[in-house]
Design goal:
The chain is mainly alpha-helical. The chain has one domain. Helix 1 crosses helix 2 and helix 1 crosses helix 4. The radius of gyration is 15 Å and the shape is globular. This is Late competence development protein ComFB.
Length: 94
């Protein structure tokens, strides 16, 4: 199967991880460096260690977001974010 340009494939984990990162790390001000480069690196590193959840529509995205309201799944994301914060703090790219 080949993907056409009309078919939009979206990793629904991106807004979930970004939202939790914003809520638990950015707004709390606990990051040593809050530059855009470090923030993006943290989110991307966490996403690379979490299973992607691809969808092609809003209904699928809403379903995936509903699943990730479970405390254990949010805890898994926060664990990966915490690891990513530590890695980027120790080796920032700026």
């Amino acid at each position: 199967m080949f993907f056409s340009r009309e078919l939009s494939v979206f990793n629904a984990m991106e807004p979930i991880v970004s939202g939790l990162f914003e809520e638990h790390y950015v707004k709390s001000g606990i990051l040593e460096c809050s530059c855009n480069q470090c923030q993006m690196d943290i989110v991307l590193l966490a996403l690379n260690h979490l299973p992607p959840r691809y969808t092609s529509g809003q209904a699928g995205e809403a379903y995936i977001k509903a699943i990730y309201q479970e405390p254990q799944l949010q805890s898994d994301i926060l664990r990966e974010l915490t690891k990513a914060v530590q890695v980027i703090r120790d080796s920032p790219r700026h």
